[in-house]
Design brief:
Elements (H helix, E strand, L loop, with lengths): L5 E10 L4 E3 H5 L6 H8 L3 E3 L8 H16 L8 E5 L10 H9 L5 E5 L5 H14 L5 E9 L9 H4 L4 E11 L4 E9 L7 E2 L11 H5 L6 E2 L1 H22 L9 E4 L4 H11 L10 H4 L6 H8 L9 E8 L3 E8 L8
Length: about 325
């Protein structure tokens, strides 16, 4: 009988564009203020991909190049690339194949996965399953989104929230008891009415009417999303903790999707976790959709110790949501 392998994170990379869009800058574009944005979202600035020659696949490639440089891993040793994104370069032709070409993953195959802000966690579960099946040894899981491409900068309710960025982790097979332990995911299709980009797909193909009515931008019912995000993330965290017999003291860190600081704080209160155990970087990047969690892991990787229990949770359009229980392993150190 072939022994099941565990899938553990052994390297991380990240990329955020150089251009910074601060709250003060947004004050000159829409009817808002730094105080209003900060008090309601926790965001102070976000990164914007301003080069028209670059797109989501480029940010993903830059993040992978960072990972390869820091870890010394040979790109030819990668078996598969899973790219979580809601903003692929093209509606037809997966961005993952472009990334493989740009980074030199000549022995890898790849595909896109769209689950909005939950995309990275969904992709992580798929990648870990591939490794646990003993079919693959090394898989890159990327979360990347160019939200500035689908945000209406005349809509103060959405333009203050989103930014651009990409994060990536390398999953490898191991016999050690670390890595992805368990995950709980849910979906509620009724949520599409409250958070979506209506046009550009098969239901409402692009036309002069959809463009004129600004249907290619993110539309959001903030109050409904806010309430459901708190409920969904809290419930899925409780479920996975109960299933794995985890008490609060057993969890070293919570890594939540970075959509709104008030959502994060509410989830922390619901679960009775102190904010000192919750990783937050929303003030720097805003909501980068599928990139928030890998960017958080990338930013705080030096705080995680081998054997630490991480509880990762997300909520996104669809509605998609869920949580992942991860035991931190040992990272590559470049020789």
């Amino acid at each position: 009988m072939i022994k099941k392998k565990n899938a553990t994170i052994t390297a991380l990379g990240g990329y955020v564009p150089e251009k910074i869009l601060t709250n003060k800058m947004l004050e000159s574009q829409v009817d808002t203020s730094d105080e209003w944005i900060t008090s309601r979202t926790g965001i102070k600035e976000r990164r914007i991909l301003h080069d028209n020659n670059l797109a989501t696949s480029d940010m993903a490639a830059f993040a992978i190049q960072d990972l390869l440089k820091q870890s010394g891993v040979d790109p030819k040793s990668i078996d598969c690339l899973i790219l979580a994104t809601s903003t692929p370069d093209y509606i037809l032709a997966p961005a993952a194949t472009l990334v493989c070409e740009k980074v030199g993953l000549t022995n890898a195959w790849g595909f896109d996965l769209n689950a909005a802000c939950s995309g990275f966690l969904y992709a992580l579960s798929v990648g870990s399953s591939f490794i646990e099946s003993n079919r693959y040894e090394r898989i890159l899981v990327v979360g990347a989104d160019q939200m500035s491409a689908i945000v209406n900068y005349e809509d103060r309710n959405t333009c203050v929230l989103f930014g651009d960025g990409a994060g990536v982790i390398l999953l490898e097979a191991t016999d050690v008891e670390v890595g992805v332990v368990d995950y709980v995911f849910k979906a509620n299709g009724k949520g599409t009415d409250f958070l979506s980009v209506e046009a550009g797909g098969s239901k409402f193909p692009a036309s002069s009417i959809t463009v004129a009515n600004k249907k290619h931008f993110v539309q959001q019912d903030g109050k409904t999303v806010f309430k459901n995000a708190i409920e969904g993330m809290s419930l899925s965290c409780r479920e996975i903790m109960k299933r794995n017999k985890l008490q609060n003291q057993d969890v070293h860190w919570i890594i939540p999707h970075q959509a709104n600081l008030r959502i994060i704080e509410a989830v922390s209160r619901n679960l009775d976790f102190p904010m000192e155990k919750v990783k937050v970087n929303i003030q720097k990047y805003g909501n980068t959709t599928a990139a928030t969690i890998p960017l958080c892991l990338w930013d705080f990787k030096d705080d995680f110790k081998e054997g630490d229990n991480l509880l990762i949770t997300a909520f996104g359009a669809g509605f998609t949501y869920g949580s992942t229980y991860l035991k931190w392993g040992k990272l590559h150190s470049k020789k």
